[in-house]
Amino acid sequence: MSLEDYLLPGVGTSINALPKISLHDHLDGGLRPQTIIELADTVGLALPATDARTLGSWFSTQADSGTLVDYLRTFEVTCGVMQTREGLVRVAREFVEDLAADGVIYGEIRWAPEQHLTRGLTLDQTVEAVQEGIEAGIALVAGTGSRIRVGQLITAMRHAERSLEIAELAVRHRSNGVVGFDIAGAELGFPAHHHRDAFDFLAKAFLPVTVHAGEADGLESIRGALYDGRALRLGHGVRLAEDIVIGREDAENTYVTLGPVAQWVRDREIALELSPSSNLQTGAIAAWGDDLLDHPFDLLYQLGFRVTVNTDNRLMSNTTLSKELALLSDAFGYDLDDLEVFQLNAAQAAFLPLDEREELADTIVAGFESA
């Protein structure tokens, strides 16, 4: 797949060529428009457009709604073509290829098996199909002389009542590509404690958890992710900034006070899976503004939080990980060292054994040194 090359502002270094880690990337949010058209034809699904370029524009326009609820409606189309084994295998394979083409060396693909059962597949069959696609993608990437590693994050929908069943599914497939668990979907009104049985089960099984929180809801949602979910990472977590007070001592000096939730997250280095473009589209940063410069990303970074950069849904946001890094660099003046920090943060937060995280970090350091 041909991707636009993004250069680090003022330096000219190719961001695409840098080794990167993707922690928050939804399988049903990263389809190629042409693939949607071809799969829709095989299952008889009507589309809002039948030209790849027009369809891609439709997704980004529809997703740019300002609310998470409206943003999520675009997934009715993508999920609609992911209801067969063949569809899941192809989408997962191409997903891996597209990550590798963007310089990603390790990616975690999150997706909700319960949303792919309308044509007769079982939960286990969906996981097996996605893993088949992932392994095929890895093999194709290896054939080009590159390497990528990919793990599945099995997601439960927070507005549904199948989270314990999905948690059991995730643990059942931990030796078949699954590296962790997530809950996603409509956040406001569906707190993490509704899924306490699932989180208790996962804790007993020692399967790591990330929870969507602090995107469409505020601090109470983040508290629930940490307390009820035992989250090791926060999916987005951008509204953690609501727990940070910036005051002015005098004309030249300011002070910063962290509330208890922010203090806990920073002190324990709980990673924030920030997705700048998506956060703008869903209104997650509306309290601070509607421009990337208003995003609390830089505040959180400067205060020492473990920030990571992610795409969330590449199709809906018309983005790549390289593009997100380029946008942040342009907005906040980040240089190569900053981008390296973001990738090392992601390596440290990956749901992998310690020695494998250290290997990832070594690969990142070597790649940035040679840039």
Automatic annotation (TrEMBL):
Its EC number is 3.5.4.4. Residues 19-365 form the Adenosine deaminase domain. It comes from the Bacteria. It is an enzyme of class 3 (hydrolase). Keywords: Hydrolase, Metal-binding, Nucleotide metabolism, Zinc. One of its GO terms (molecular function) is adenosine deaminase activity. One of its GO terms (cellular component) is cytosol. InterPro entries: A_deaminase_dom, Ado/ade_deaminase, Metal_Hydrolase. The keyword Metal-binding applies. One of its GO terms (biological process) is hypoxanthine salvage. The keyword NADP does not apply. SUPFAM superfamilies: Metallo-dependent hydrolases. Its cofactor is Zn(2+). Belongs to the metallo-dependent hydrolases superfamily. Adenosine and AMP deaminases family. This is adenosine deaminase. It comes from Cryobacterium cheniae.
